[in-house]
Design goal:
about 210 residues; mainly alpha
Length: about 210
Amino acid sequence: MKRWIWLMCLVPACFTQRAAAQWTVIDPSNLVQNIKSAVQSSTTASNMIKSLQESVKIYNQSKAYYDALKSVHNIIKDARKVKLTIEMVSEITDIYMSGFNRMVTDRNFTPGELAAISAGYARLLEEGGALVTELKNIVTSGNGLSLSDKERMDVVDQIYTRMLRYRNLTRYYTDKAISVSFLRSQSKGDAARVQALYGKPSERYW
């Protein structure tokens, strides 16, 4: 009877874990085409595409580590915050791709502004990637650090908090950029087009 109760408790937990372990599939090809179409300067377009490629590189490295983590069997593997921290890199990249893909088709932004926005996103992704590397050094055995499980988990908590901040900053950064377009569209009497492009605030996941 006790075994049956234990199994009943375990099954929902497995489904919960599986649902939380979503990893967004990133396809930058459409964004590259939109950048080339929106930005006439080949130098500016090249810099923006290079920034995008670096972001995708960070995303792929994080995904590779996330996949490798599944084969590790220790207390760290089962730490929910380790998985959530890495998954946030996927979320940050998805916010960047989805939001910026709309911005490069928005005529309310100049090529110079788009380049600056792109650089801002690249910086956020770079910081997120650095945190994943830091997390990997803490989690991976044989890193030369003699830390107890509690000490490791304390560091994991700190990295998680910092990654959460970058995720929230990415959302805020995207919202602020979109709000600039909304303000400009209102002065031009073009708010309906911009709203259709980005969706109402309640409809946007970021």
